[in-house]
Design goal:
homotetramer, alpha+beta, Chorismate synthase, AroC fold, 5-stranded antiparallel beta sheet, 8 helices
Chain lengths: 358, 358, 358, 358
């Protein structure tokens, strides 16, 4: 069944595998009249790109892109915007040695179980390369949201057991000043050291990306199934390697009492605000105008250098050896993907909310 | 915009507020030929019902229900099944004293912001009463899944800082033997004490519900947006008071290395299994045949007895006083809701998977 | 698969068979703030009701209804509106004699083929009774459209070979002055005579319903799949017994030349108009502000009094005898159904168009 | 709002305008394991191609295409198939003279009304070029349907007032033997003459395409909104220039009596058949195993050579002159488009029907 579309009114459909000629995305439902900034799309793609630093996979992927439709004289026309990113370094040879072998914690076995075959060259649609299409779409979406003063910023808040100290004030402008994308410089250095150490071991490590959405007006979301945080949660959980999502107080809420968790309302110069923000900017599934914040947990990348025991597609004992060029830690490159998916959710609900009242 | 529908092929649409005549659900897409067990629906509703024990709200809600359509001589016909649950104890008077006042961490303000009005009687669609409709639908859905040997079981794993000890073997058959719905009897007693203590303080406390899905065949889910765990995550985050979702290793994955997190495949009597299950039964968004497990974090209920400062809908300072009858802790009653939503996701993907191959 | 939902943003889901306790509809996506007129819903249901005149089936159906949700103090709240119409005269005994027999041109055989069973009592979901739910929803929808000056009016334009003379001016206010619902009184009398004659023969006759939508602003619809007339066409073809749909010039366009078919634009007091309206108010799938008009062909009702040869569900030769009380001609009662479905399409596109531009 | 997607389970999304770099389509939901025949896609595109005969526009469009994804070693993988058709002869200069002028019966004015701009170069998404993407997708879909013995064949049955004589036996194999695509050779010659005459006059003429679907199993479709013929109707009405749709007896049913219209069932060697087929292979919205047949009315192309009075986007009087190269009659090239859209509907319902029973 069709399963490559995300969103209701502002909607993307992605396509492409690493072994094909290209990957890409159709953005359908972007309103007419938006000025498109191609350089911004390039910059966003560069943030996700392999080879951007010593901390990430050295695999070469060219992230040139073409806008095939939906833009006329620099502005969106209201029709579908198709963006194509050619595959230039397909390297299916790198994967030939693993044909038939079910790599541990990869999608090889589940693909076989579902489709009656597996994609021997880089994981097919479960390859992280698919997320480049999301980032391209996310760039268009962020441009759209800026028209309304909405900004979305993500950063690395934890790698392994190294996290930004609590109760410290951080400057999100600094996120892009280091290759880890951690806005707290001292922590960034420690994270970098850990990642390099893990890489030397031929191993990988998990991490956390946090995200902040500011400028979101109150009223976005819906009270039942399409709660704003439910759609954000699905969006994040649809990103490769994500194992958990929490917003506002998140899992910490379990040990809290109502009297300390409740966010007291106050009138701040004519605007309704809350003194605290355990709600994470969303109450009853609907934005309340406060900043929206959430955390996303990423597992350690499944591809490791050391040999692992496994079975092949005939049920025979086999050994999986990780010869490909892979990330020791996925979170530095995940930051723009988290932002892109968040932007898509907010844009969709921003448009949906135009129909709430007569 | 329409936002009260969940699922693609096996799909529910719920309706109703506590101040109306009834709440209910349409189940559309349930295949023909399923034997419906009305008593099972009743039992499931009773698990969610207010007043079922001293640990939950003493508000009276009658959970009688009528099946208006879609069932003929005890079997589903393939047409929409409408189940209606009348509201018998509407008690809108209980809420009159709060009209115009924005209760902290309730949806009063965000409703106003979205719809230009608020629902003065019990929270409208953001009332937890809506979840009774989900539980009724969930009972039908579980019956459907049993045809395929799929069982879904949830339980309370944490209340406040009291949780089931790690590495202890628990017997899920015991979940229903105590009012907390914790399968570990000693822990259940401690949870019960904590909830009663919190109630005496006029306060509330958060908790966690865990869920296990067994018998799910490999191949359910999709590689990109409709990952099985992404749909489970959205389903859980759409339940009132949920602040976080994690599956398999969850947030613990952050501090793990790939070499310890990877689940090694083995051939167990002709079936592909994994030695560990950090993947939580899902790899690349697709079920792998191992048990699926996940955790859901519930915040402390926002309604507390003590008076709280707030503002009203004219921006004036006001005081919110909690006179309604509410739960000191939501998780005992959340257990069947978690199961219902999980069942809907699995049933939908079970049917979706029928179209994966020619 | 779920198939009982119509519309994207303004969306209905219907349920119910004649043998169940009730039929009904959920309207999801109706904006908040609309004043609901229950008497208007009743009047609309009365226009579709059996037994309303000597021209239609004398079967008794009570068309009482209850609004279970979505309306508070007479206004829509933005949440789903559930309307239930109880079945009071189920009379499944009337149908017992046909159990297992495939009535010619009924859905008995195709139901069997699809669901592995047939619904022996009145045709299940293929019974015209389901359309009462659409008419109830249509009444709410028309009320919504009136806020924007949009009026939808249908009438009977042909019964058998009797049609309103071409190039005659008709007064649509007169439609409801006769039981046929033909606005041209002389033609109405001839139609009435024909229907009574056909009834005496124990036979049935086909007919045509025409519809006019005025006040529709330019800009509704979409250029590709969701052309306004494509959605109107699907809406009409989803009504029982419909065999054809045409809009504007319709099938007559086949013999026309471009030079005569083209609608020349002119500036009428600052508004763009067309001199002729072969386009039927829709160009390139998008409304142009001119009146929208279309025709719908209804076949003769399949249930006739005379005995018909057929087979039963074991493939044996059998005889179908029509003992139920049925309509000799369906179009007088189809008029409000056509209006209801047209209203749903326009309302949906009216809301969809709110997201066309930044 | 997103509006460029068609289908539920087997689903296409098209993109592209004639002024952009390419047009194309994503097919999402095509089951894994289908052998793709690129040459067949080429042949189908050639049937729709401009310049294929003296009867159609002499505009040059290259119909080379690339499959960017979803196919591995010649077989579908179950992931989205993206097919791109580059624009090589964009010729936006041809249209410069009409910038700002609302061409009669084109989408210029309605685009302006909807999106706040018009697409000055060839009609944007309302250009018939978009249908090439549908034909490419249709070729894949027909290949899929052939796995199940389902064949879809369309032909030209009328041009202006010239139609294939009734009650004549026609051989659909002959459709492709003449440039009109009329299977009755003598009628084809007369149609050809009429089209050439109309072209000489600088005018255009309407026509009708008929379609036959054989091998469709009973049980496809749904009883209420998603009736098989309702989805076929929407599919056809979504094709440019279509003004009407009828199936089976179509508009002729209006003058028929039930006793002559009803299709009597009979047992033909163990299979349930009907003696006549006024039902057009569909009863109660569900296929009955008999051939499905329908007619589609196409208006005369709006672009004519002679000058036409009109207004421009400032409301000033203006003259539209048709300098582009256009079709004198659209039906010969519409035949493969009708087939493609029909194939998409049947494929979608074929997969949907896999979930009807437990």
């Amino acid at each position: 069944m069709a399963a490559n579309t995300f969103g209701e009114i502002f909607r993307i459909t992605t396509f492409g595998e690493s072994h094909g000629k290209a990957i890409g995305v159709i953005i359908d439902g972007c309103p007419a009249g938006l000025v498109i900034d191609s350089e911004f799309i390039s910059r966003e793609l560069a943030r996700r790109k392999p080879g951007q630093s010593h901390l990430v996979t050295q695999r070469k992927e060219d992230e040139n892109f073409e806008i095939l439709s939906g833009v006329f004289e620099g502005k969106t026309t209201g029709t579908p915007i198709c963006i194509v990113i050619p595959n230039t370094d397909q390297r299916s040879r790198d994967y030939e040695h693993i044909a038939g072998i079910y790599r541990p914690s990869h999608a090889d076995y589940t693909y076989d179980a579902k489709y009656g075959h597996r994609d021997p060259a880089g994981g097919g649609r479960s390859s992280a390369r698919e997320t480049a299409a999301r980032v391209a779409a996310g760039a268009v979406t962020k441009t759209f949201l800026r028209q309304y003063g909405i900004e979305i910023t993500a950063w690395v808040s934890q790698v392994g057991d190294i996290s930004i100290p609590e109760h410290i004030s951080i400057d999100l402008q600094k996120t892009e000043t280091n290759p880890v994308r951690c806005p707290h410089s001292e922590t960034a250095v420690r994270m970098e050291d850990l990642i390099m150490e893990v890489r030397k071991q031929g191993d990988t490590i998990g991490g956390m990306v946090s995200c902040l959405i500011t400028g979101c007006p109150p009223g976005l979301g819906a009270p039942v199934f399409d709660k704003l945080h439910a759609d954000l949660g699905k969006a994040m959980l649809s990103i490769n390697a994500v194992k958990g999502f929490e917003y506002g107080s998140g899992f910490r809420c379990i040990t809290m009492k109502g009297s300390e968790h409740n966010d007291v309302f106050e009138n701040e110069a004519g605007q309704v605000k809350t003194k605290t923000n355990h709600s994470g900017g969303i109450q009853g599934g609907i934005s309340n105008g406060m900043p929206i914040n959430f955390n996303v947990a990423f597992k350690p990348v499944a591809t490791i250098v050391r040999a692992q025991e496994t079975v092949d597609n005939r049920g025979n004992q086999a050994v999986a050896e990780g010869k490909g060029r892979h990330d020791p830690c996925v979170v530095p490159r995940a930051v723009p993907i988290v932002e892109a998916m968040a932007a898509l959710v907010i844009a969709d609900h921003l448009l949906r909310d135009r129909t709430s009242r007569i």
